[in-house]
Amino acid sequence: MSCILTIEKLSKSFGRVAAVHDLSFEVSQDEILGIIGPNGAGKTTLFNLIAGEIKPESGKIMFNGTDVTSAQTFRRCRMGIARTYQIPRPFVNMTVLENVLVGAVYGGGMGSKASRKKCEEVLEKTGLFSKRNAFAESLPLLDRKRLELTKALATGPTLLLIDEVAGGLTESEVEEVLKIIHSLRRDGITILWVEHIMMAMKRGPDRLLVMDFGEKLAYGNPDEVLDSEEVHKVYLGDDED
Amino acid sequence: MSSNRIRILLAALLLIALATLPFWATRYMVSILLLICLYMTLASMWNLLAGYSGLISLGQQMFIGIGGYSLAVLSMYHGLPIFLSVFLGGVISVLLAVLISLPIFRMKGVYFAIGTWIIAEALGICFSNWGYVRYGMGLFIQPAYRLSMSTIYYAALVLCIGSIALIYLLLRSNLGLALMAIRDDDRASEAIGVNIFRCKFTCFLLSAFITGMTAGVLYLNTIFIQPFEAFGIGWTVKLLFIVIIGGLGTVAGPIVGAAVFVVLQQYLSEYVGFNLIIFGTITISVIFFTPKGIVGTFQEKLGFEIFPIRRR
């Protein structure tokens, strides 16, 4: 298996708080890497760094063998890195289809015919096709989360960063999300997945990365990682939030 | 389907009426419609920046001044054909826009607004101290005397219809899609591949080009150009009034706004001093009671768009 993403000694702090500190790990092609950690462990900051929305103080991000540490956000997207936001950020004054078209046309660099086709395909996949002409403003939370995913998929990513897509969903809805994510992997998309829901994290990812205070606490097979003592101490032993 | 047909029919009738206007209307009416066309074009270009690209420019007058002076200098001093000079005025405006874009695009929001304003003011001062264009005394654009009112009217009409068609097509293009996305959430749009700078820069150049050309036609009509009037903030204030009462971020807004503005201006010109108070009161009332302007409110209430830009 080849390596699609390499994070090397990455650091970013906000004031005196080290959000990500000296973090290194690798993601192989076609794997699903789950990322867990208590709130404030730096998971979202890590995503922002990989997507290019903030720049690190030190360290390197290699994507498909290219150093993208200083590449602009839209360029990284066009190279194949797509992301979703924990709190959905739909374009509220546009229809669902238009939202997704932006991703296909710009992130995917597709012509008008190809982008239409791509949009219909991903809308089908995430179950939003019937709502394609609704304004994004009118969507309930679950659909907004679907839209996040649909927009990201429309860009034709090879690496997908998913930030808490299952949070706040019912158990059967989480099942559905798991199904979608596994089907994405079959399509050849590598996935980084931040989630708090243990059920999803046990069954979704191939490997787990546990973060605490911006550092790597544990890394490996999900069952082993979740059973390890230190993870229990900082994460599972913690009260909610 | 039938509403579409009615739309096309009405548009065709309107076009025929406008195209034949000099043959049946009074000279006064032609002059009024000439002004409406010009203000509509200028306001559409301001709307493209403020309403669609999130660039609040208070410096459109820099392109008005440059367009006007280009016309004067090129046609008078260098003997170029009048309409070539008008066109070159647009080109020179684009060059100016490219030149200032480096510093100006580093500024956001209100800083951008003030930055554009200051550049326009500085240009006004430069021109008023420049012997080549006869300092602050201004220039009479003599070649323009030869033109008839209807020639100028047709030039304005072409610019007006051309710019509305252009904006409409632009909004329906991929660039328009990106502009809408940026307007809703710039960070999210960048994350799915939109190059924000490039989109805004394109609109800025386009706006400069058409504003510069329109200014040329405007000064064919005015004949006299003087730096503090040409580079004055008064222009942008008028455009702001037009776009706000018409409807910011709508294609038809500047059309309605310009018509209201020009007609009001005609009626209020007797009451010098009062007219500004009335314009101010109208603007404030619109902002308070119908912040989406005439067209925006109309569209919201009836769910009908004069220029539909949705993709189905």
Task: Please explain how this structure is put together.
The complex is a heterodimer of chains A (about 240) and B (about 300). With about 240 residues, chain A is of the alpha/beta class. Chain A has a domain at about 1-75 and about 195-240: P-loop containing nucleotide triphosphate hydrolases (Rossmann fold, 3-Layer(aba) Sandwich), CATH 3.40.50.300. Chain A has 9 helices and 10 strands. Chain A has helices spanning about 45-50, 75-80, 95-105, 110-125, 140-155, 170-185, 200-205, 220-225, 230-235, and strands at about 5-15, 15-30, 30-35, 60-65, 65, 80-85, 160-165, 190-195, 205-210, 215-220. In chain A, strand 4 and strand 5 form a beta hairpin. Chain A is globular and about 50 Å long. The N and C termini of chain A lie far apart (about 35 Å). A two-stranded antiparallel ribbon of chain B has the order 1-2. The radius of gyration of chain B is 19 Å and the shape is globular. The longest helix of chain B is centred in the C-terminal third of the chain and has 27 residues, at about 195-220. With about 300 residues, chain B is mainly α. Chain B has a single domain (about 1-300), classed as ABC transporter involved in vitamin B12 uptake, BtuC (Orthogonal Bundle). Chains A and B meet through helix 2, helix 3 and helix 5 of A and helix 8 and helix 9 of B.
Instruction: Report the sheet with the most strands of chain A, covering strand number, pairing sense and barrel closure.
Output: 6 strands, mixed
Radius of gyration of chain A, in angstroms, nearest whole number: 17 Å
| Major sheet: arrangement of strands of chain B | 1-2
CATH classification, class level of chain B: Mainly Alpha
Helix and strand content put the structural class of chain A at alpha/beta
Beta-strand content of chain A? 25-35%
Write the element-wise H/E pattern of chain B from the N-terminal end onward.
Answer: HHHHHHEHHHHEHHHHH
Low-confidence stretches of chain B: none
Tell me the Rg of chain B in angstroms.
19 Å
Helix content of chain A: 25-40%
Helix and strand pattern of chain A: EEEHEEHEHHHEHEHEEHH
